[in-house]
Design brief:
Elements (H helix, E strand, L loop, with lengths): L5 H5 L3 H23 L9 H25 L1
Helix pairs in contact: 2-3
GO biological process, one term: translation
GO molecular function, one term: structural constituent of ribosome
Keywords: Ribonucleoprotein, Ribosomal protein
């Protein structure tokens, strides 16, 4: 999966964001298993980039929730 930029994430609906998080978590799990079994990573920075993207999505979701409460 391609890494998403914040501007791309902001255009997604809440359901799409949840779907992306689930997809990224599956990918992260797959990469973690590959790493723990001693396999060579296809891209060494991929795990941290996936984690960063998940955090980015969660942050934007929380921002949107906070705006909805204040509005």
């Amino acid at each position: 999966m391609a890494i998403l930029k914040a501007s791309e994430i902001r255009e997604l609906s809440a359901e799409e964001m949840k779907g992306k998080i689930a997809e990224l978590k599956r990918e992260l799990m797959k990469e973690g298993v590959n790493k723990s079994t001693g396999g060579a990573p296809s891209n060494p920075g991929k795990i941290s980039e996936i984690k960063r993207t998940i955090a980015r999505i969660l942050t934007i979701m929380n921002e949107k929730e906070a705006q909805a409460k204040n509005a």
